[in-house]
Amino acid sequence: MWMWAVALAGLFVVTVPLVRTDLAVMRLPNPLTFGLFAWGLLCAATAAFVASSFTLFVTPLLTGVALAAALLISGYIAHGGVGLGDVKLVAGTSVVLAIYSWQLALLAVALAFILMAVRAVYAITRGHATFSSRLPFGPAILAGAWLAVLIAIASDLRL
After folding, report:
1. CA–CA separation, 41 vs 18, rounded Å?
2. CB-based contacts of 158, cutoff 8 Å, min separation 6
3. CA–CA separation, 12 and 8 (whole Å)
4. Which of 21, 40, 68, 146 is deepest in the core (most CB within 10 A)?
5. Overall number of domains in the chain
6. What does the pLDDT look like over 21-66, one tens digit per residue?
């Protein structure tokens, strides 16, 4: 649990710069997304080493890769509905959250899609966007991650 808190500190550090950048220019910088992924892997490797449990490293790694691959495939099917920066961000946030549990990472991605859907409906109904508009997904990914963290802390259950 202590290593999860350390991993969350890394997520905290990149959250505001990623949100600001994605809202401003619809880009998620590689140094921040790859850095988050590497930080999550480093934290998972440290937790695995300290606990002498290879599973504590493999689970976050596979979770991050699997959820990023699922997002990449869905973006390909939707003809570019999701950017590669979003895929890399999901990989990084998933690795960090999967240090706690892989279900938490899955919850975060599901919440991100729900938040993005609400954002899109709001933008369309207010006339700020159309059905063909491109909206930044990074803020929803990060909001979903932090909402999942709050749910995990509030419920104090291992999802």
Report:
1. 19
2. 100, 101
3. 6
4. 40
5. 1
6. 999 999 999 999 999 999 999 999 999 999 999 999 999 999 999 9
SS3 126: coil
Instruction: Give the amino acid at 54.
Output: F
Q: Is the dihedral of CA 79, 23, 61, 4 positive or negative?
A: negative
Residue spans of alpha helices (H) in the chain: 2-25, 30-51, 55-77, 84-98, 102-125, 138-155
- Going by pLDDT thresholds of 50, 70 and 90, the confidence category of residue 157 is low
As given in the structure block, the two tokens for residue 109 are 């991605």
Q: How far apart are CA 141 and CA 150, in angstroms?
A: 14
Residue 132's domain comprises 2-155
Buried-state track 130-153, b at ≥16 Cβ within 10 A, e below 16: eeeeebbbbbbbbbbbbbbbeebe
Using an 8 Å Cβ cutoff, are 159 and 107 in contact? Answer: yes
What Å distances lie between residue 117 and 6, 123, 136, CA to CA? 31, 10, 12
